[in-house]
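pinned: reference chain
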Amino acid sequence: MILKFQNRYSKKFLAFCAIWALFWLAFSYFFLQKFLFIYPESFSIHVRFALCAIALGAAILAVCGKDVYGAICGYAVWFYGAALGFVSSLNLAKIHTVLRGSGDMSGMSGCGGAVRFLNFDLSAVPIFKPFNSCAFDVPAVPTDTTLDELQAKLTALYSGGWYLFPASKSVD
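pinned: its C-alpha cells
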C-alpha cells in the first residue's frame, strides 16, 4: 500500500527534513555547547532527542516508505519527534518567561533529574547529557579556557541569555 501523497517529491522532502533536523542538532551541539559554552538543560536535551527522532523517522520513510510497516514505523517515529520537540519547546519557553519575569518557579515541573527516553538513560552520550538547571542558557566558559576573538565577542553578546537574534531580547 502506497499512501496517495507519497509521490516523486517525497524522498527529496524527507531527505530535506532529515538534513534540516541534523543541521539543528549539530548547531546546538557544536556551536552552542562546544564553541559558545552554552550547556544544555533537560528540555534542551528533549529537543535534541526530538530532532534525532525526526531525522530517523524521515530516513526510515525515505528507505522503507513503500512498505506498509516501514511507513507506519517511519511516520510514528517522525510524529513522535515532532510532538516531543513541540511540547519541550513550549515548556522551555514557559520556563524562560517565568525566569525572565518574576523568577517564581512555583508550579513548574520537569526540571532536573535524569533525562530518560522510553526508559533509557542516555546521559552517557555527550550530546544528550544535561549540564544545567532549568533554562540556564548563559555561556559558562571554563576558567582555564582561552577564547579567540570571535568566541569572546559571541559569549559577551549572549551573556544575558540565548536568543536566536540578540536584538530580540526585549520581545519576550
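why pinned: The two ends are 47 Å apart (CA to CA). The helical segments are 10-35, 42-64, 68-100, 149-157.
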